[in-house]
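INTERNAL TRANSFER SHEET
From: sequence group
To: structure group
Subject: Clr5 domain-containing protein

Please process the attached sequence and return the structure record in the designated field. Keep the field labels unchanged so the import script can parse them.
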Amino acid sequence: MPRPTIAIPPEIEQWIKDQYCYEHKTAEELVQALANEHDIEMTSRTLGRRLQEWGCKKQTRVNYTFELVSRFLILFYQMVLDDKTITYILNVEGMSISYSNVARLRRKLGIRRRVGAGDYDIAWEELIAIVEREFHEGMLRNYGRNFLYAHFRRSQYLVSRYVSFCDFSLF
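Return from structure group:
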């Protein structure tokens, strides 16, 4: 004869889902809380099976929408931000995504970070040296911002539009 099923009221079911998915409680912690607060006795395996039936997972699947990908590309190319900062900004803007999913999206799009986070100052000094050299050679004198950006990209320099719009009148 099979064991009787444990009846869980809908409000406690919602509480369990919230605790498991959003508060990141483990199944063992929830079993103890159910026993202490709600007088419901069950094993962590039973609770895990119920969570699976309810479709509650801690690992959320990221839906790579056009809005998410386009915002990621803007933050990566135009603002030249690292993955950690991009993750923070996307989460603040209401797009739920983890650091590993941002890195996975970047790899999926075939984008590599060629300059490490600590090497920005060195890369900036190299860019200034390149601009000074090409400006004194007369190559950049008449370039507007679009031609300047296109010239950098053709020369295989990874420069964002923001950096190419900088005022190089110092030279």
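Handover comment: The two ends are 88 Å apart (CA to CA). Residues 120-136 form the longest helix (17 residues).
Transfer complete.
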